[in-house]
Amino acid sequence: MITQTLIKQGAYYDSVTLMQVAQAIVELEGIEDAAVVMGTPANKGILENANLLTAEARDASADDLVVAVRGNTEDHVGHAIAQVEQELQSSRAPQEADATAPRPKTVAAAVDQQPDSNIAIVSVAGRYAAGVARDALKGGLHVFLFSDNVSVEDEVALKQFGRERGLLVMGPDAGTAIVNGIALGFANSVLTTPPAPGGVGIVAASGTGLQAVTSSLAKQAIGITQAVGTGGRDLSLEVGGIMMIEALKALQADPYTRTLLLVSKPPSTEVATEVLAQLQESEKLAVVCFLGGKRATIEASGAIAATTLEEAALIAAEVVRDGDPRRVLKSLKKRDRQLQAQAETLKAGLSKKQRYFRGLFSGGTFCYEAQLILGKMLGRKQIMSNAPLDKVNELRDANQSEGHTAVDLGEDEFTVGRLHPMLDPTLRNRRIIQEAHDPETAVIYLDIVLGYGVHPDPAGAAVDTIREAQTYLDSKGRRVVFMAHVCGTSTDPQNAIAQEAKLRKAGVLVMPSNAAAMRLAGYILRPA
Amino acid sequence: MPIEDLFHQPIRAVNVGLQIFADSLQLQGAEVLHVDWRPPLQGYATLSRTKSGVDIDTANAEAVDRIRQGRPRLIGMGIAGKVIPGMGRRMILHSGPPITWERMCGPQRGAVVGAAVYEGWATDYDEAAELAASGGITFEPCHHHHTVGPMAGIVSPSMPVFIVENQTFGNVTYATQNEGLGRVLRYGAYGDDVLQHLKWMEKELYPALRTALSSTGPIDLRSLIAQALHMGDEVHNRNRAATSLFIRQIAPALITATTKSRSQAILRFIDSNDHFFLNLSMAAVKAMLEPAESVEGSSIVTVMARNGTDFGIRIAAVPDQWFTAPAPVVEGLWLPGYSAEDANPDIGDSSITETGGLGGFAMAAAPAIVRFVGGTSSLALRVTREMYEITTGEHEMFTVPALNFRGTPLGIDVRKVMETGILPFINTGIAHKEPGIGMVGAGLVRAPQACFQAAFEALCEICE
What we know:
By secondary structure, chain A is an alpha/beta fold. Chain A contains 19 helices and 19 strands. Chain B is built from 15 helices and 17 strands.
């Protein structure tokens, strides 16, 4: 085994590019391990743990690119390093036709080159994100701030600054938004009003929540006007719902928006009061889904309350069609009875030992909603998670399930030095096998999230592993219920219909929504 | 732009960070410009105010305004020892930050021994070297004496110098006469031929030019440089147009200033030396920059200079302090028979032109010189456009036709260098590392990062 290092001084690449390159290198023949990282102290720690921290790498500065490769022979390693250089080169976007314009290095320079810019998409590392977002606001741009690890203080300052200037600040940690029909971040291809009928304007403090309701509306042929993501912390007491309120005002003033739809985890009481008060400022009917929140306060404000993402989208569609929202609840009840019957059949295939739910989530809000629904059906204390509703239900080790477990694979412990599970299925696939080996596992559930910016074939990436798991289970004479829900639309780059077909073909039970899947799982696992 | 307005216009996005988001916007048919962002350099922090309460942006605006207002004029000539303030009797001025004989590079040592013999302090070059090594000569940077010198930048007391006055602020700067190409002192060449040429410059060129200047009156260098930029010069590595313009202005007076044969020889000499104007452009820019040196709390770079060993910069907020790093090796094209192995690290005060928004910063005006780096003419435009990202303002007088007469980028803000990681571009000639050989090539180089990091650290200390 030999280890070689290449230092490229002052060469900067974003972390996603570097991780993609490293992944490609590790797959080469004769290569045991490789890292392609900027020489920050944190990355040097990672190199050290991987036994890749050579003397040269130790001396590199945070501004240098470090390529470290360990392999069988000098030839293997040399070839891999050459390959890194090639991959890095091809990762650079081709120079525009106007070769005289340097690619802008700052937001200000970009605005200078493209003077009528109106929005900045910011996804740089958290510690720089607030500065870049501020520059964008100063340049008169609305901001979609995808980056996480931005402090609350910075978030408040940015949002106040944006509010003063009439600019939207979506995020930090905004996964999704759809503005004027254009999907920002990880968003889906949906119908837009105009021209599509509907006119639902959405504000969501949840990325996957926003994806779920917009996709569901698209499936019902209902158009949305705008879907604004505020970032998960917007409705906290500290931030005070600044952007949800600003976005609401804008949608209330927007002539195409007829119905409002709000999605969030439960806000702080003070902020909820303010948001609900703002709803009363216009005649437009509002559907409010504060997951796990109190129904009564919402209804007192004249809005319609929804308890799940699915319900929220169905009710909003019903409102658009001038129907009675109660019809939605009735039909969901009816479906529930069907799910109950289905559960009885599925239960019959399980052994007595198989008692537990194992949800492997890529969407944080789906994981949250799952815990709420299962908690209600199986007992709140029974559901463990690395992102639990209550601190006492926190997994001791996020890598090890205990009892009923809902794992959010998008949480920090899984994404340090690694891509988000919506982009890189490796960790989830590994976990599928791990759960299949546990004789107590009854249900394995996956949320398959489609849209722009995410993995090109998430179902395809999962089914090979699911088949492998099934082969193992067959050999043990066990069956596990594999369940999935595809969040997306048929016009998404991945095509929801094709994705669902792939899953079914592999014997996966494809459910129409996260909530439906959780109800079914709950019925299967409910003690007799 | 109120939020509702955004809802009724096409998305035109600026993407900073992950390329995938730019790709997906493009896939949806939205307009998007991807920013080639990189994290700020190590040690960067947002600085806006000094402890003494000065707003840095305001100070920088003031500094740049002073540079823009400066009007350098060539007002006369004199002998270094008599006119340059603080010039001692056994003193030699050199380019770049302060340096001792022990650490001097080959070309600078060569020029020192040449100058010592020229001054008559030693009878031969070995003796001159011993004198220098034994501390018999005082070395000080040109920049400590309102002076600038190309390459080795050697100025000794009996050398004639141009006197340039900034008419707006009254400050005065100095530079020697350019010696031409070939075996010359500034590239470290010494020998009887070199000294003979220096003597000719002192005894014939200087008196004639001085007399001519007294009859032409002051020559407006700012206006001359402005014209040269429109004729393909950036007045650092290309001075062909400026030299020609200078001849046009001086020739009528010159032919009456001395004998016919002497004035002929002088005009031929200037004509044969495309860089004759370089020393004047350097003194002119130095004169324009000096008033900015005293602006309290400004993060503008007022000097970039190299002595062939160290590269040094100075900033207005921390005057009198040099921030140095090892001088980089220039990448470039080589004269026949030479290669990178022969090159001395970057040397000379001529990077004062870049500091003042000319030279590499005005590359877009001088597409012909990109051939030095084997580039295309679009490279010239790119270089200048990139420099706008680290500067505070633009020149009013110095404009670039190819950029629709936009002013050249002016006033390097050390904060912006740190934030963007973009280092100033310098166009330069390359000296042989051994004394006495001369020029081996020319090329393009970036100022070293460590100077800016050191200057920024010092700035942090005086800031809130």
